[in-house]
UniProtKB/TrEMBL annotation:
Stated name of the protein: Aconitate hydratase A
UniProt xrefs under InterPro entries: Acnase/IPM_dHydase_lsu_aba_1/3 (IPR015931), Acoase/IPM_deHydtase_lsu_aba (IPR001030), Aconitase/3IPM_dehydase_swvl (IPR015928), Aconitase/IPM_isomerase (IPR050926), Aconitase_4Fe-4S_BS (IPR018136), Aconitase_4Fe-4S_dom (IPR036008), Aconitase_dom2 (IPR015932), Aconitase_mito-like (IPR006248)
Pathway(s) where this gene product acts: Carbohydrate metabolism; tricarboxylic acid cycle; isocitrate from oxaloacetate: step 2/2
This enzyme's EC code(s): 4.2.1.3
Domain Aconitase/3-isopropylmalate dehydratase large subunit alpha/beta/alpha: 35-477
Classification via SUPFAM superfamilies: Aconitase iron-sulfur domain, LeuD/IlvD-like
Catalyzed chemical reaction(s): citrate = D-threo-isocitrate
Organism listed in the record: Salegentibacter mishustinae
Cofactors required: [4Fe-4S] cluster
Keywords: Iron, Iron-sulfur, Lyase, Metal-binding, Transit peptide, Tricarboxylic acid cycle
Amino acid sequence: MAYDIDMIKKVYSQMAERVNTAREVVGKPLTLSEKILYSHLWDGAAKEAYQRGKDYVEFAPDRIACQDATAQMALLQFMQAGKKQVAVPTTVHCDHLIQAKMGAAIDLQAANKSSSEVFDFLESVSNKYGIGFWKPGAGIIHQVVLENYAFPGGMMIGTDSHTVNAGGLGMVAIGVGGADAVDVMAGMPWELKFPKLIGVKLTGKLSGWTSSKDVILKVAGILTVKGGTGSIIEYFGEGARSMSATGKGTICNMGAEVGATTSTFGYDESMSRYLKATDRADVADAANEIKEHLTGDDEVYANPEQYFDEVIEINLSELKPHLNGPFTPDLATPISEMAAKAKENDWPINVDWGLIGSCTNSSYEDLTRAASIAKQAVEKKVKAKSDFGINPGSEQIRFTAERDGLLKIFEDLDATIFTNACGPCIGQWDRSDRKGEEKNTIVHSFNRNFSKRADGNPNTHAFVGSPEMVAAIAISGRLDFDPTRDKLMNEDGEEVMLDEPTGIELPSDGFDVEEDGYVPPKEDGSSVEVKVAEDSDRLQLLTPFEPWDGKNLTGAKLLIKAFGKCTTDHISMAGPWLRYRGHLDNISNNCLIGAINAFNKKTNFVKNQLTGEYDGVPAVQREYKKEGVPTVVVGDHNYGEGSSREHAAMEPRHLGVKVVLVKSFARIHETNLKKQGMLGLTFANEADYDLIQEDDTFNFIDLEDFAPDKQITVEIVHADGSKDTIKTNHTYNKPQIEWYKHGSALNLIKKQNAA
């Protein structure tokens, strides 16, 4: 039986009425995305039609999921909200703090020792506030959610950008910052700008070396890393129905890499099969009773151009396998073109590692397709030229894969089976074969490949592909290997070719597990004590941010003008810094250390205008804070792309940065800045970015009149006394301006709960 089945049945009991009402109000057939959005309005049934990309709307999500790295800050904030229990079903999953090094057993033991303080805190705070807790080793959050909690037609938010993975089971699942999750935990509405809609029509059927991963690799190449910003991507068509549920999950998962609010598929037989296989026949039965409301209306899919803001069509029968990268997940290259492209760009041809797993590709089907390639290599006497690493998605997947002999196949190829956790995907990788900044290539089935992300080396060229393609390339040891046409030399000196991969959608003997790692909370957690040691370097209770004084902001100095891509990895790195995710002051020592200074093209090297000396970004900013000097961060396009980590907003806020002024924001990061009481602005004229000089001072001369849809004027005073006056835009509505006035959204929640 499913967790929270009564909640799911309640959602379904009101869905037909709410969808029908919304259809009448909107006056046209509805997409699946619209059905889910309108059936989850905070005020109940729809009373008005919302403008896509313009109207802010309050929603009532069904559940929340948090991973351990972000849960720390989210729950530290929730502890200040004055609530006895979370208002909606919530879970915490310990998957980010386990470093991949020696193998599953040793690595998990090491993590339990090194991060015991954090795990104990998360388990105790979960127990106190009615939150389900998944222990270290239980699995990667999004695979565990897909196996246990995701349900067609539901709405979920999660403190990880890849929460969108649950779209593989027909949800609208959206990544948010911890402050957003705290709102919902505290029983308040969750606000989102009503998304635009991108329709992707899939025709034909996947075959051969092409997989579901190649669909999203192709889409990423079309939309780029910002093309989906502010939009839900809805997949439909015969090609969509032909895919497995976990294949759909892979596509939705990596939709985060094009900036999409989320991605989703309509309910179909593959979802029903998956629900039944994961012991949730009760959910499948309930969904089947209202299945017409769990997919888009027929008229929508018949004439998509009339109902979506943008339509993309992909013929799966013609789609070719891809590799995307390096350094960005939207640089899409068909594998047949990789040899020429790699030579042209001087990418290292020899591949040192092939990594399979992550929340994107760690299902049973993924492992079987990769194992089918590994098995051929063993049988055809081909030794893998690259090192292999495998991260199963959950203990249920690992146990079942071991039972069915899949892990033995990888081990016969000398692969290392890592813990059921994120590992190298989020920089938790103690890579023994590389030191320093040597130029090298790796291939993986992850979602992101930003510089330094996997191993901290800025010269590691990481390429994203399907598990089976990663396996084939790792076996060959060459980036330019095309398994559809190239041969390999075996130990006997014979030329052999790899056959097309084969996969098993669901295990014929069913899934199995001895200990899934779930710890249910106490019904009454009032007696549970949550301990945070005063001298801890891992955990720190939060101090509320100061409210706005209501005056214009003047005399603000430039901290850094970031050049080019500035993701949340650049603003708040992961890897070894994950240990400080629950200690705001300590983790603030990584604030913007990966951002490139536009004036010297160096990282973590900026000018202190008070002394004229250069130093690291956090050190300079701490000097400004000590002297009471406000500061401004200036950035380029899609600032804050990538992870949902709110630390990228909380760190500059904690250190005294007042304003982030950029050409454009990634959605989650802009919201995180607003939630933490920061001023997030965009240049009305993007060319004004070029006016910013290293010794500039900023005066926000009409901030006192801060109001929705009203530009803010900025006077830029240069070192020679000359001035430029520019206009800036913002997207704050009235409630969000109240967050700013109170110093943060959490400050406002506390005030409201105390009233």
